[in-house]
Write the structure tokens for this entry.
Amino acid sequence: MFNFFKKKAPKTNLAPDSEVKSSLTAQQIEQIELKINPLLEQIEKTDDLLILASSCEQIGLLYHQLNHIDLAIEYLEKSQQHKKSIGEGYKTLMNLYNAKRAYAAQHGSLADIDIWMNKMDAMRNIAKQMTIQRD
């Protein structure tokens, strides 16, 4: 019930991409990159907002798997711009924002803390809007 003695998972620091180590094998990285390229091509060929949103979300999630945090954030934000949703991309983006905020706090960057807090507030507003629309 309370899990007092359960080991906690280590917290992840979201340093700039160059500082993040990947636990993926070269083959896994290659497979993920092969999935990204057709999605990037699809984005260039379409004006359909639903396809753009879906493709951007998928790319963002794949970049997240590769630990390319800044690119993951970029594409997940694009996905939200094309179509607001509170699916897997939303959850991942909120986690990335929170981790970036924590990293900024660890390094004493008040300006960066404000940036990430504001982004998290905007995401919470999306969730509120989506919840209201369902009612």
User: Anything to note?
Assistant: The chain has five helices and no strands. Residues 57 and 107 are 29 Å apart (CA to CA).
